[in-house]
């Protein structure tokens, strides 16, 4: 029995549950979907733990493992923040995303990893976990940004159709988005710093103009600009939401695009 | 200036009796016929209403008088022998006490007489004539005006009856049509929208621009869920603003300060009667930066609109006018037209019934009805008596019947003469109404 598939099915069922919640507005769907993600996450954790125990490496050595791992982080982050942030509808965005990522991992071939001694050690684990957590938060920030734009559009054009009732207030979406960006940015920064330390240990220099590094820097700058403008000029609402989406697009490119289009030292473990 | 159609001269009721029954008339201005500047000039304060009723009542041309004055209308309701004379008098009174030249308000005034006046009052009381159809406060204002007129002995039989009818018509319309829900649901919709923008409303500051029934209703609605937020009131007439601010425990600001208040206010409710935009895009744009782009929610209840719709294009600023709010409600409600049609039908019916009563107030139909009642009593008594007297000839019976007729005639002789002319300067309608009540004559 393929346990990976069971995990994906849990996430898929949760997506269905959130879709049911979106249309029918019954809280039972909301709670059921949350429970399904939790179940998927627990199984997911066990599987990853077993893998780590077997190989002694954090399983992030090819694209398959990366995706599988980031799906796990996203599910974990979602489960952690969902009870604290009163945006019920966030699951409608998060659950399909988790499903998509894990499903993508499932169809990506798991090429046997060649033993690379440098891909181990404390700083690497911290680097990967922290940066993935940050990325998960920023993905959720993008989700709330999209929800914000939908709701803002509803209010501006004064057509209060399907989503108007189902989405929370602009203020809540805006502040939730801000929280995600703030946490995500902090984690991203910490992840980059641990990355520098690790790079210094392995290659002897902090920064090597590797495309992934450059694009991480660009992503970081976008979010830095967003936070700066928000704190100084009070940028909020639509512009903040748009920037959160742009930032996430840049991050996606950093994560995937760079791997396929550009060369660099991250390639070894992000390609199949 | 557009005047509501129809200010017809009354059809004079038959003039067989002297003096005639006083006739009903209304002289007024409202938010459609006059701009806010003029309405503010002509508005009566409570105290002014009292003295006006007292003074006008003394004039021989006017038999009964009642004055309704709100921020959207001034209505002078009266009965008089000669309505034209009374209207002339009222205009002179306005010119005198308000020191406004007649030429300034002449064209904005409307007058209704007879059943048109009845209809107008019914429409006003049931809020069909309001700026916001169905707003609930006008009925209370009409009631207050009536209480004031009664306390100062301004009303008599006709206005008493008319106002009581107006209250019951308004009540009936409120309970039988969805008109009343509309105003409530508009302010409810505004609150719901505010919730979708701000989430929590407890600490949001409100700026009220202009005073209006509907705006106050919206503030009341918001105040139920607000606790700590500030409230600013801006009114063209500062004193009115101060009063209103005191009522809602807020702060009165001058009209010129509106632009500065955008910095701290979150929800702006505007309902001035100004013909042009009071709040423009250029006023709002620079403020957004100062308020760190926190959202601004404009609720424009005025007709014509107070807030430039272009403000809605500014980021984080949302403008809803009364039609937008209506659309919000209507997305899951049936159309309102049928509701106001239903209301108009109720009013037509009530006007008809009032007219019937009014016509019955004339001496002739009252005497006729009285005679009919006496005839019926005597007839039935005679029949009862005849049953036990079977020896009477038909001639005897005819004699008894003739006697009955004579009795009725003689009983009615003095009352009829009195009712037709109760003496100069006496209110005939009072005695006719009394007679009808004593003999329990049904309204037809």
Present the secondary structure layout.
The complex is a heterodimer of chains A (272) and B (444).
Chain A: H1 3-24, H2 27-55, H3 63-81, H4 90-107, H5 122-157, H6 162-166, H7 170-203, H8 211-232, H9 238-261
Chain B: E1 23-30, H1 36-42, H2 46-58, E2 62-69, E3 73-80, H3 83-98, H4 102-106, E4 110-113, H5 114-125, H6 137-151, H7 157-176, H8 179-198, E5 206-209, H9 213-223, E6 231-234, H10 238-247, E7 251-253, H11 258-261, E8 267-270, H12 281-290, E9 296-300, E10 317-321, H13 322-330, H14 337-360, H15 363-387, H16 394-420, H17 428-438
Parallel strand pairs in B: 5-6, 5-8, 6-7, 8-9, 9-10
Antiparallel strand pairs in B: 1-3, 1-4, 2-3
CATH level-3 fold name of the largest domain in chain B? Beta Polymerase, domain 2
| Tally of DSSP β-strands of chain B | 10
Q: Mean pLDDT of chain B, rounded to whole units?
A: 83
CA-based shape of chain B: elongated
Number of extended strands of chain A: 0
- The domain tally of chain A reads 2
Specify the helix fraction band of chain B: 40-55%
Key structural traits:
heterodimer; A: 272 residues; mainly alpha; 2 domains; 77% helix; B: 444 residues; alpha/beta; Beta Polymerase, domain 2; Rossmann fold; 3 domains; six-stranded parallel sheet; four-stranded antiparallel sheet; 10 strands; 54% helix; disordered N terminus
Concise description?
The complex is a heterodimer of chains A (272) and B (444). Chain A is mainly α and 272 residues long.
Provide an overview of this structure.
The complex is a heterodimer of chains A (272) and B (444). Chain A is an all-alpha fold and 272 residues long. Chain A has two domains: 1-118; 121-272, no CATH class. Chain A has helices spanning 3-24, 27-55, 63-81, 90-107, 122-157, 162-166, 170-203, 211-232, 238-261. In chain A, helix 3 packs across helix 5, helix 5 packs antiparallel against helix 7 (170-203) and helix 7 runs antiparallel to helix 8 (211-232). The relative contact order of chain A is 0.11. Chain B folds into three domains: 23-181, Glutamyl-tRNA reductase, N-terminal domain (Beta Polymerase, domain 2), CATH 3.30.460; 186-329, NAD(P)-binding Rossmann-like Domain (Rossmann fold); 363-417 and 427-438, no CATH class. Helix content of chain B is 54%, strand content 12%. Chain B is elongated, with a radius of gyration of 28 Å. Chain B starts with 22 loop residues before the first strand and ends in a 6-residue tail after the last helix. At the A-B interface, helix 5 and helix 7 of A face helix 8 and helix 13 of B.
